[in-house]
Amino acid sequence: MNLTLPLPFLCKLLVATLAGFAVGMLYFAALRRTVLRFTANDGRWERVALTIGRMGVALALFAAAARMGAAALLVTFAGFLLARSAAIHRSRRGA
Hints:
Elements: H1 7-40, H2 44-68, H3 70-93
């Protein structure tokens, strides 16, 4: 039995992982900005726009990944979680 994976499949998974990471970084940057707006108690419409925008982009990403299959959805989520870890690390560092 040959268990080799075709190269296009691996490339698709790599692209999905990178897309998850990139969108995750944008998501958590927008979340940080939203929290800063809440704590400053200003920018009401900016807070709404940031919240709707980040939810919409994340939903679109995961919907596209789900259409590519379970493996793509899984690695997209893994990339998103890596971005979450990076955002937590950055916030603890004080950046």
